Amino acid sequence: MALALVAALAFSMAVACGERDDSPPAAATPSPVTAAAAAPTAAPPTPAAVATSAPVTAAATTPTAAPPTAAATASPAPSPTARTSEQPAAPAADAARPTLKAGVIWLDSPLDPVQGGWVASQSGMSENLFRLSPTNFSPLPWLAMEATDVDPLTWRIKLRSGVKFHNGAVMDAEAVKASLERTIRLSEASAEALGLDSIAVTDEQTITITTMEPRPTLPGLLAGPAVAITDAAAADAAGEGNFLKAGALTGPYIPTEYIQKERLSSVANDDYWGGAPPLAGIEHLAIPDTNSRELALQAGDIDVAANISPEGAQTIDAHPELASRTAGIGTAAVIWWVNFERPALSDPLVRQAVSLAIDRESIAGLIAPAGSGSFAELLLPDALASCPGVNAPGYEPAQARDLLAQAGYVDSDDDGFVDKDGEPLEIVIGGYPERFQLPIMAEAAQAMLADVGIKAKVLITEWSVVKEPVWDLFGWYNNVVEAGDPIQNIGKFVGVSADASGSGANNYGHFHSAELEGIISSAAEVADTQQRQEIACRALDVVASETALLPVAHAYLIHGVNERVTDFEPHPANLYFFDHRIGLRA
Amino acid sequence: MGAYVARRLATLPLLLLGISAVSFALLSVAPGDPAEIVLHQRNPGQMPSPAAVTAMRAELGLDAPLPAQYVRWMSRALAGDMGRSYVTEQPVAAQLARRTVPTVVLTVAALGLALLLAVPMGILSARRRGGAGDAIVRLAALVGAAAPSYALAFGLIILFAVKLSWLPAVGYGSAAQMVLPAIALSLAPMAQLTRLIRASVLDVLGQDYIRTARAKGLPEQIVVMKHALRNALLPAIGATGVILAHLLGGAVIIETIFTWPGLGQLIVGAALTRDYPVVQGFVTYLAVIVLLANLATDIALRMADPRLRYERGGV
Known about the structure:
The complex is a heterodimer.
Chain A: H1 2-22, H2 32-37, H3 47-50, E1 99-104, H4 118-122, E2 130-132, E3 139-141, E4 144-151, E5 154-159, H5 173-186, H6 188-194, E6 196-203, E7 206-211, H7 218-221, H8 232-238, H9 243-246, E8 253-259, E9 263-268, E10 281-286, H10 290-299, E11 304-305, H11 310-318, E12 322-326, E13 332-338, H12 348-357, H13 360-367, H14 397-406, E14 419-420, E15 423-424, E16 426-431, H15 437-451, E17 455-460, E18 473-479, H16 486-494, H17 514-521, H18 529-545, E19 549-555, E20 558-562, E21 565-566, E22 583-584
Parallel strand pairs in A: 1-10, 1-11, 16-17, 16-18
Antiparallel strand pairs in A: 2-3, 4-5, 5-7, 6-7, 8-9, 9-10, 11-20, 12-20, 13-18, 13-19, 14-15, 21-22
Chain B: H1 2-29, H2 34-42, H3 50-60, H4 66-78, H5 92-127, H6 132-146, H7 149-163, H8 175-205, H9 208-215, H10 220-232, H11 234-248, H12 252-257, H13 263-272, H14 276-304, H15 306-310
Helix pairs in contact in B: 1-14, 2-3, 5-6, 5-8, 5-11, 5-14, 6-8, 7-8, 8-10, 8-11, 9-10, 11-14, 13-14
């Protein structure tokens, strides 16, 4: 048997090597997608010229800061053809350009934006009409040039000229109209969020959107990954499962091969409106284990490791050829929902006691790098809405014991845990394992609650259990800068959508407050950013005073990069990892 | 032998039917609604509406009674269609087939390596019982059996990939990328087999027929290799069959750490997302693997041990 296995070993090595040989380099794959990529056109505009444009609207969502690499200019970007003489020649051949290797946590969502859109957005393949500012998350023009709110129900959006889909088709007003209509048709969540009534083509580069209800934050909503602009006709013609072959996206990288949960290959889009990328392409490898991702970077297997841990960042920073990068704004909130439908925390005194018994600042130190935002910011990062008067409760165990006594809970049997009418106070702290922060939080809180006499069980399980009535606190890790709107991001946690309709939210704790709904509904037609921030702060005050949920920290996104990587500008939102500027020195 | 194999193969369909029915029932009572998970997967951060959940349940066929769901699944499976993944929407059979290749490659490499080292080490240790060589082999086997695979895996990466830059840390597709996961995966079976072979060789070397062989004046090498080894390896053959079935089911930790796209990664991801078709397909696959591995082991044992062939009037 040993000899047979030795022979099999030799065979397996041959198989392994053979499999590699059977897979041609991505750039050589003969497909319409690569054909488009391999056909360089007139030199593209410089990043400085294309990264800025007219403000979204004069009255509504004027960007307060330009992207880091953008140079301000008032004029719209001219077409690539018009810019030929201004631009350097596109890189001569892919052989002369390096391919970047990136390790990411997940490659889960399909490339078709209507099925989620995260992977396509993060990998620089899809683009939206607007993208979120890296400094204050306001919507910046991207495939759009500007947006004007004609009246509360009408938006006019002028489109960027010179944009082509990967299949070579021109992105004009008809194409954008078809793309948005396809999104609404295939994505119920997007249809609900956008609330569009009609889309009309005003001229070749302008569309007019009418909404059913006022949508003062429409440009921000159009920045969602599921609303990326696609060549709808090509995507539909390609059929289910063949989106990649449709060449229906517009970004600087063209997907050539995608094996979900394994790897994603791309080649440069030399016809890109923002300029030909300096890379030949990007190879994404799904490396779900954080330690493995960090070690792969240290071993030189990959050039960029997305989403590394705070501890891993220290090791990487100590390496002479590596560095960690972060945008410096925590955009993902780590929170506990409070379950209002279970008896344990239905008493507000007990809720407050639980809140005061948990040292969230200590827990924040365990799960997020030093200085990466803390529980004191409550729910939203300062960049989205600064609310100096609203703070999360501090750590006051003595006060927690007093509140429990006021609620009738005492340790009548000297077992170290409080009880009432013979029933012990016991809560279940849930969470899911994929986010390493959540089990740590639950176990730390268990010990802290025991200190004030509350017995706690930890339930680390799958995400979907959040829908079942088996927990009192449940940890969640989620983006809180969606659409760049503070009110939407409060509403999605506590059951009130931006128009106060009460739908489309993640209110897993079943918290209801007429006062909160009133506050949020008052923002329905408010376009002014500052006024929306003020309303958001009033809403946060209600959330804090009712202990509607327990925010713990804002986790930074930290990436590890090889120092050969150039022009990598980490964006604080989890939407954009790579753009057309990133390069790799030899 | 042919009749024996035919008898064993004839029981396979019944066993598979039972295993698939039980696993189907168990999956259906597990917490979590696949319809919600699929909707969440497609629209991260959004709570799906009850209407959307109902529609998705109908789309996935989850609104039918459980027996009807099972009959439909089984009838399709018999035709080679194991359904589509709820998450990736890819055919389950294709996913399993694609993931099986890396798992088989890694299994063969790891088990081959384990046997290559365990057989000589076990014999050496037995022949030098009480000596320095025996002590070293026993210590190595103890460490191999006790060391957590994740610790060993990270240790190998840090030493050979990060510090020495001899081998890649992660990935699949080249022989070099297979070395570290194969070593990491081989250590536990190697330790197990080494200890087993040592004990077995010691036992056989104490038998009367070995004493007779030595009394005839045969060289010790002939005594061990020709007379002792065949009997001594019988327990190892049985254990190898069990290890083989275990490894072919996917090595979750090793595959995750080395980003090896095998069945272990697939099944963990599918279980966490309640991807019923993939889990069900995997359970069926694993049942087939275990049953075939057991059959292969029994055949190997009968070929190696004439006594088994003569039971029940021979084969």
